[in-house]
């Protein structure tokens, strides 16, 4: 825990939220609406973390989803923060604004961040902290203002920070302790205060406060303090105090009125402190009863005297003496430090240590001599039988002997990294039966010489990376039965043998990155002994297969426990294949990476041996196409990386059935359109990366654009940076700037209208056909007749006849014997009769048409024969119309035109009512209107002929108009024409 806190302080950033805060955030999430979408212009979302780091942003993005709990805006170009910049983030707990250009923060700018706990404003340009700058941050517990150049602090700047526990305002330009008073008066719960690197010249307790503070940690280092006075017990809980400045030239005055004022201090750092020895002694005496850890790095005073004074404190157990230029450590230098259990002597240029320099440190458990100039393991360390941790890294040690560690039987950690050791010996670690961690990386080791064949039974972690090993001989690790993690990356290993890893039955992680292992090395079966291995890294080697044919012996056939396999390459450029059964035996494999191995083909059965695979990376391979069959066995796949694979389409995902896929990276490929079917086939997709593809800015991508903006589940990373490649008019323009309004169609509404219209049309057509089919047929042909009649009128010459006679051939005697003599002989009318006036050889329909349009009137002689003719039946009538009439020859409309009084009806005989029942309109007319009836004129025939004469003369007769209306409305009126056609 202590190391984690130290790391957090030194590197900046916010620590993990407390359990109560997590609970509060979870409660608030329950009442939040879902995020409006995960398309962010300049950020990406990782679970509830919004990451906008290093995107050259000048303002805070406004599209951060309200469900975000962490927002990282570090390393951007933001200059000021306004009240409208950080709204609608009700559960945000951490805001990182590290390394921007922020020079101004408006009052109440953070007022909406009611759940914020950590605010990082390190490395900005805040010179003045104005009134209400942190208003609303009532739950803030951690505030970082490191390296801003702050000079002035408003009295109300910190008034809302009543729950603040950690404040770092170091490396600014605060000059007086009074400026701290303005802050502390509003922070009753402040636990840790860091003000190092300011311009404080004095520290007087009465200027800071007149009450007790809850501070546990106070860092005043790197301030030019020349006067330090405490007159009251204002630090009753202080446990960690850091004070001192390596750049200070004037000595500091120390005046603590009562030694009990610092009675709780257990960790004291006076590195670089310039103070008189007497004052230093007084300082150490003030913490005499509680001190456990003392750091005296980069000291200017007599270090030997300080060590003697400090080591006389009975409670002290840890001593740091770094960067003090101790080239030589004598036998009496640490003779009083009998209670020390942890000693740090790093960065002292030590090149010689006397044999008994550590003789008095019999309780020593941790000794660090790293970053010095030792050429061999010092004799002074050989007899520290209580030592559990020895750090000799970053020295100049060339050889190690069998006696160097022989007495260190309690050693648990040994660090020899970054030396010049060229070879090991089989007796080197003979007695290190408790050793658990061994660091030998970055030496010049070429041979192991059996150093690990029979010893180190409890070793769990060993780093041999960065050496010059060329081969792993059989049984080299036979004595490492407890080893869990072995790092061999960065060597020159080319040869593996069948028993290279025998003995490592409990090994969980093996790193062979950046070696020279070839296919032949895999074919040896060297990995068969690693039955419990979980992670194997073979990245950047020389593994190459000429074809995809199945192997006789698979390299990982016995690794059924393996969960992660990596074989990526960075510099191998020759085309290769992956054998179809390369992964055979890896039944529990969860993660597989074959990035940049230049494979050009993957057989559809490649992954049938890995049914549990969750993460697959085959990026940077010239595959060209991918098939659905290749991925069909991977029903548990959650992450897929297929960038730089030259694929032209993502359609293979439609049938791949990757229903659990959550992450898809498919950058730098050659597809231009992403269809709805592709995205709908991935129901649990949360994050996609399609950057740097050749997008087409047309309606083919309209759905994808709309989905990118409105998706509530899937985040499209860097969508705002997608560029168009087609058509040329949109080349290099942003895809999201393409207007899709012209492409949008309400297909649902169109389908509804079309379907409804079709149903209504079918229903109307069905009813019409069933009940009115004959009327419709006739109406159609009457309309054509009207068109034809209109044309005829334009071409009509003066009428040649006064009347055209229409009759049934059975009534011809009456027409010849009675009608013709009376109308032509006595009255002088010129009549048209078919047997006399029709032109021989001319089609009868043309003769009829010409006769009607050449006559002023048409006289229909109606009898039973006329009505009962088969032509009057609807079926025959319609059929006759269809077969006999053509659009160019229709002529009947003129007979039914209400605007022309052309039709004269003459009933040749009385017709009973029952015979007229089919003709209801005729019956209705006969009841209301008079008509010409030959039988009724038997007693007065002259009256009949006179009325007929008048009918031939008149232009408007109500009776005739009504009759004509009836004929035009009723389909049976065609009988008039059809009866004519009988002739």
UniProtKB/TrEMBL annotation:
GO molecular function terms noted in the UniProt entry: signaling receptor activity
Domain TIR: 799-952
InterPro entries xref list: Cys-rich_flank_reg_C, Leu-rich_rpt, Leu-rich_rpt_typical-subtyp, LRR_dom_sf, TIR_dom, Toll_tir_struct_dom_sf
Biological processes per GO annotation: inflammatory response; innate immune response; signal transduction
GO cellular component: plasma membrane
Keyword Acetylation: no
SUPFAM superfamilies: L domain-like (SSF52058), Toll/Interleukin receptor TIR domain (SSF52200)
Regions crossing the membrane: 21-40
Family from the record: Belongs to the Toll-like receptor family.
This protein's name: TIR domain-containing protein
Protein source organism: Crenichthys baileyi (White River springfish)
